[in-house]
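haha ok so turns out i had the wrong file open the whole time. this is the CORRECT one, sorry everyone. sequence first:
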Amino acid sequence: MSSRRKWGKAARTPKGYDVIEAVIEAFDNENRDKVKESNAGKRNTESLWPVHQIAWQRSRYVYDMFYTYRRISREVYDYCIKFKIADAALIAKWKKPGYEKLCSTYVINPSNYKFGTTSICRVPLTDRSEMQKSAQDPTTGCLGCASGKDAGHKNIFGNKYGQNLAAVQIAREKRMEAIKIRKEQQQKVYDDASKAGLYEHATATLAQSADPGAGDSETDDSSDEEDYGPSPTAGVWAGSTKLEAESENIINSDEDDNFSKENGKRESGGFDAGESRNLKKSRIE
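then structure:
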């Protein structure tokens, strides 16, 4: 169990914190990198946008993992609030209707703007002029965080710090679980065939399932990195609901491919463990 420091004092992390620990550490590392970057050619307020956006994404990640997907306990959530991993004031606003995508509590404080109004990012896109549609809040860099249909951007910051990082992690966990179940089923088929005395058939079946691309041409230029992009640092995928849907489609397509391969084997003379027992009995007779 790891620990975090607050005001020079180390505190033990609660049980279950390891579910989000890798992502939180990745946020911390990237935040340090952004602070060290040069601000040449940037406005004073613009240089702080990445820091604010990383903090916003970290709070959103903790919020979704607790309230939306129930993947962390109340103890872990309270720990994140206590040690300022997540912004408690911002999360409190997200719970209220009309503030589900609020970028910061600063933009809704009338004392921060002229004439007692709010930031331009709180104005729905449907109510903006053509020149204002691409306007950003000077403090946070938000493009539009108003709630409602077509009222704001899906990615309010317009960069890789998307709002659905927790959804992507859940989709990846589902995909890994499906792969684990499929491997267990393949191992069970191998064990059944081995018990029936069909060692060669079982070995060939297991080898083919372990290396489905064994028959591909050596001149193929495609790779996993080109299909799905490079593997993320510390398991972090800063993506959107589209990426989550793609992960779900990958699971479904893999299952369909395996089902078609099994049918092809039966049609081409392959047989399962039950058929092998019947064949063995016929040979004895």
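The CA atoms of residues 270 and 285 lie 22 Å apart.
again sry for the mixup
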